[in-house]
Design brief:
The structure holds 3 protein chains of 3 kinds. By secondary structure, chain A is mainly beta. A 16-stranded antiparallel barrel of chain A has the order 1-3-4-5-6-7-8-9-10-11-12-13-14-15-16-17. Chain A has 3 helices and 17 strands. Chain B is α+β, with helices and mostly antiparallel strands. In chain B, the strands form 4 sheets. In chain B, strands 1-2-3-7-8-11-14-15-16 form a 9-stranded antiparallel beta sheet, covered by helices on one side. In chain B, strands 4-6-5 form a 3-stranded antiparallel beta sheet, covered by helices on one side. Chain B has a two-stranded antiparallel ribbon with strand order 9-10. In chain B, about 50% of the residues are buried. Chain C contains 2 helices and no strands. Classes of the chains: A mainly beta, B alpha+beta, C mainly alpha. Chains in contact: A-B, A-C, B-C. At the A-C interface, α2, β1, β3, β4 and β5 of A face α1 and α2 of C.
């Protein structure tokens, strides 16, 4: 029927499309206005509460057997800790086995790290040419981490608070912008300071945007076990990117970056951790946003990305992400977004595979070169499933909640064998945020 | 990449009167009149068939302001010279004269952009907005006060149909004789935008341009406070429907009171549905505030044509609006 | 993996009637907030912090966000 057709068609009109089209007529807007890169029209203030909780798989041996094994391993752990210098772990001492949680038949999980993180964000446009933004975060971290591979008996518990503050100042020109960012993060054993410089510039038809970025990070490390004092770590990064409007429905972005780290790169809380004092990495990331449109409620967007990482420690990884933004309100401003992330990595070439044949903590066969037992530098794959709900409460306020589950295990590695002998890791994290535009 | 600008929301008034008379300017351009008003200068001239005003409050010496107002008026006249259907030598008239011929007419980027905008409006309104519907005025003579016969309307409506326009990147062709292009609904608004942005590019930030009710604000008064514009009441020419403060953006109004025939208790207004040839009747008046006058004018025309779905459209475009329906009830944006 | 690739490919091909950069008046859909390449800053920071401290690779999204002792 004609009336339905008309209704459907007016519903299809992209939000503001007529207004945008009219603004694009030649000479109707003075050149310093909307067609150029311009400070955002509205400021934003937002508060987010985030929580992260991680567990690893418990060992499958029976309770009695594990207690006897853990006794010998505890003693051995003390020896190992002494060997790597000082007591490992944070302010509450080390050597205690991690607290166990659920016992359901044969599968147990061992609590590891728990983080609660409130944070505040603000963006203030200053006229049409300037904008300033900043955020502050307090991470309250507690729990335990294994010091020897993922061994439960080697868990060292800790508690710490990290405070971070950052700010960015952006200057807008015709079709171009430049931004300077500063950040600082402080916790009891780690201070990080960073500076960044970015510039974006758009082509005349505004379908292509280039961006260039430079980042410098300078960290000072003072582990609580005193293994090193005032160790320094430097990171220099550079990034180039192109964003292109491919069609009326497609936006594509390619980013290439290179980073060079140097200084103290070891993890002082892990046993037998001796890494090179430099790490050079290259990353390529491709993102594609596709507007699916749709007959109801104004349409959905499909967002996908692929990232390739390779460094000179032998770590190579692939990350594939996909998200579908579905409209859940009549005006299309509230969305439900399920997401999937698929990740795989290879081990660093100095990662020492677990010696599963031993019940004590063997020293790696060759400690003359670089060694690490860190799970993070082993080979495995990971999957994240998440769902996010964004609700536009009214013109100014919006609420967003996100819940994700993360699972990391050796068998999830895409190509090749994952590292054996490591407990799988499970993590849940959620965020609730409230934003107001003004 | 860039999102539609959102101004401060308030209904948009239009200056009273909007009688379009088919007057060709004899001889050279009419002179610019300057009047001192409290706070600044008001420059007036006649173009596009109606009174045109440029208000400038910037603290510049009068000769400089006058020169800028002259330039703005010259821009309005330039657009009139190109796109007025009442001038035989305009580009639009040349295109119309070539209707039915095999050879397309070459057009420049500005004309192509305007016609493409018309094409977009045609597509997004399912054919309600049609730049070829101006030919219907041959059937509807509002000054005579007599309704046309259905046969006459049908005879003229045969020439209406944007799908029979071949629009290329730099050429256009009306494929059948008798077809006509008419930029009513966007032409005057476009001229207001061009004049205003030229003034803004020259650095003027306090004033507005008003072309017979289609207006575009350069910026607020010198003290930062907004201008107040009144929307005419559609049934009481001495009263205002609303008063609107506007510090930037544009305001346009369409109504059924500008030109109409009243017969048998019904009002037949000058906004005609191209699919039937008859006037629309859902709205008495629609006013829109948008970043540009072209956007506002296109949306008021679309809203008048669309009938009940008009408010959904205006909400989907993120603009502020004020509309009075046929029952006299007023609808505002949130 | 292959199935996902095919699905993505199908979505891409079905959606592109024309790979032609849009005219300014055609950018209505691209301007929607869901289509933005930028992510919510606090959410993005928290998520990339998690992956940075649990995985062996990092980067690709932005420069100089600063580090932490979590890795």
């Amino acid at each position: 029927m004609a009336a339905t057709e008309r209704r459907t068609h007016s519903g299809f009109a992209g939000f503001g499309s007529i207004v945008l089209a009219a603004c694009a007529l030649p000479g109707v807007l003075a050149s310093t206005a909307a067609l150029a890169e311009e400070a955002p029209e509205r400021g934003v203030i937002g508060f987010t509460l985030s929580s992260y909780r991680e567990q690893q798989d418990g060992s499958s041996s029976s309770a009695t057997a594990s207690s006897s094994t853990s006794t010998s391993k505890t003693a051995a752990a003390a020896t190992v800790s002494a060997a790597s210098g000082g007591s490992s772990g944070g302010s509450t001492g080390g050597g205690s086995s991690g607290s166990t949680s659920s016992t359901s038949g044969a599968s147990r999980t061992v609590d590891r790290v728990h983080v609660t993180s409130p944070s505040l964000y603000a963006l203030v446009p200053l006229g049409r040419r300037w904008a300033i933004e900043g955020s502050g975060t307090v991470d309250r971290v507690s729990g335990a981490s294994p010091t020897y591979y993922t061994d439960e008996a080697s868990m060292a518990s800790f508690r710490d608070t990290r405070r971070a503050l950052d700010g960015k100042l952006t200057r807008y020109f015709d079709r171009q912008s430049v931004a300077l960012g500063l950040s600082q993060s402080r916790e009891s054993d780690y201070i990080s300071r960073a500076l960044s410089l970015e510039s974006k510039f758009a082509s005349a038809d505004q379908n292509t945007t280039f961006n260039v970025g430079l980042g410098l990070t300078r960290d000072t490390i003072n582990p609580s076990n005193g293994l090193v004092v005032d160790a320094h770590k430097r990171i220099n990064e550079v990034q180039f990117g192109v964003t292109q409007a491919l069609s009326v429905r497609d936006l594509v972005q390619l980013t290439l970056s290179h980073s060079a780290q140097s200084g103290y790169l070891n993890d002082p809380y892990k046993s037998y951790d001796h890494r090179p004092d430099s790490r050079s990495a290259n990353v390529a990331m491709l993102r594609w946003n596709h507007w699916l449109g749709g007959a109801t409620l104004g349409g959905a967007a499909l967002k996908t990305s692929y990232r390739y990482y390779r460094d000179d420690w032998g770590v190579q990884s692939h990350t594939l992400e996909g998200a579908l933004a579905l409209p859940v309100s009549r005006d299309g401003r509230s969305t439900l977004t399920p997401e999937l992330r698929w990740y795989t990595q290879s081990a660093a070439n100095f990662y020492v595979p677990v010696n599963t044949g031993s019940s004590t903590y063997p020293t790696p066969a060759d400690t003359s070169g670089y060694t690490t037992l860190d799970q993070r530098l082993a080979a495995w794959g990971a999957i994240t499933l998440g769902v996010k709900l964004d609700v536009a409460l009214d013109n100014d306020w919006s609420l967003s909640t996100k819940f994700s589950g993360y699972r990391q295990q050796a068998s999830y590695r895409w190509i090749g064998e994952g590292s054996t002998g490591l407990a799988g890791l499970t993590a849940y994290f959620w965020q609730v945020g409230l934003r107001r535009a003004f | 990449m860039h999102s539609p600008r959102r101004g401060r929301w308030a209904p948009t008034p239009s200056a009273p009167g909007a009688a379009e008379t088919a007057a060709t300017l004899p001889g050279g351009p009419a002179p610019l009149d300057a009047t001192a008003v409290d706070g600044g200068w008001l420059f007036t001239f006649r173009a596009l068939g109606g009174p045109c005003e440029v208000r400038l409050d910037d603290a510049e010496p009068f000769p400089a302001l006058r020169a800028q107002a002259e330039a703005a008026a010259a821009e309005v006249r330039r657009i009139e010279a190109r796109y007025s259907r009442y001038r035989a030598d305009s580009l639009l008239s040349r295109i119309n004269a070539a209707a039915g011929q095999a050879e397309p007419v070459a057009i420049d980027a500005e004309t192509a952009a305007l016609l493409n905008f018309g094409a977009l409006l045609h597509a997004q309104s399912c054919g309600l907005f049609d730049l070829t519907s101006g030919v219907l005025r041959q059937a509807w003579d509002f000054r005579s006060g007599r309704l046309p016969t259905p046969e006459r309307i049908e005879a003229v409506r045969r020439h209406v149909g944007w799908d029979r326009v071949e629009l290329g990147e730099d050429s256009v062709r009306l494929t059948e004789p008798g077809m006509e292009l008419d930029l009513g609904g966007i032409g005057k608004e476009y001229a207001a935008d061009r004049a205003a942005s030229a003034l803004q590019a020259a650095g003027l930030r306090h004033g507005w341009v008003n072309l017979a009710g289609d207006l575009r604000v350069l910026g607020p008064r010198l003290d930062g406070s907004p201008w107040q514009f009144g929307i005419q009441h559609p049934r009481d020419s001495a009263a205002l429907l609303a008063s609107l403060p506007l510090a930037d953006g544009a305001l346009a109004t369409s109504g059924d009171y500008e030109r109409f025939i009243e017969q048998g208790g019904r009002r037949y207004c000058h906004i005609l549905d191209p699919r039937s040839g008859w006037p629309v009747g859902q709205w008495r008046s629609v006013s829109v505030v948008a970043p540009t006058c072209t956007a506002a004018g296109a949306l008021t025309t679309l809203a008048m044509l669309m009938g009940p779905e008009a408010l959904d459209l205006l909400r989907a475009q993120g603009v502020a609006f004020l509309a009075m329906d046929a029952q006299g009830q007023v609808h505002r944006s949130g | 993996m292959g199935a996902i690739g095919l699905a993505l490919g199908a979505a891409l091909l079905s959606g592109c009637e024309s790979i032609k950069p849009p005219q300014p008046w055609e950018k209505g859909e691209l301007a929607r907030p869901q289509m933005s390449m930028d992510k919510d800053p606090l959410e993005a920071r928290f998520t990339s912090h998690i992956y940075f401290s649990k995985e062996g690779s990092s980067g690709g999204e932005g420069v100089g966000g600063g580090g932490c002792g979590c890795n």
